[in-house]
Amino acid sequence: ERQEQERETKRVEAEQQKKLEAEAERTAREQEFEERLAEARTSWAAAEEERKQQAEAERERQEQERETKRVEAEQQKKLEAEAERTAREQEFEERLAEARTSWAAAEEERKQQAEAERERQEQER
Question: 20 to 30 A Cα–Cα from 56, which one of 75, 85, 96, 114?
């Protein structure tokens, strides 16, 4: 009976040891799973942050591109307005020169006619 009791005790202890080892194995697997899960979450969070930063950088790049195009268009508009103003000024100067030439010619014609009239009157006398 004592030997039977010893065998039963050893069997129960072996069974208990087996359960403890299985529990330790399960706990180790759970801990490894939790560690991998934490690593995956950290990695995902870093990737998400990187994606957000890249999206922000792209948004800023596009905004800068739009601003550059706006400034270039504004500059082009100013250049075109300046070219048009210069062309109008040049046209004005040309017309003014033509008017002066025409006026000078008319003045010369008036002087010649007055001189001719004066000579005709002198001739009559």
Answer: 75
Instruction: Report angle CA 13, 17, 18 to the nearest 5 degrees.
Output: 120
For tokens 């008017």, the residue is 99
Give the whole-angstrom CA distance, residue 106 versus residue 104: 5
Q: Could you give the CA distance from residue 66 to residue 62 in angstroms, rounded to a whole number?
A: 6
**76-105: pLDDT as tens digits:** 999 999 999 999 999 999 999 999 999 999
In eight-state DSSP terms, residue 1 is -
Q: What pTM does this model have?
A: 0.48
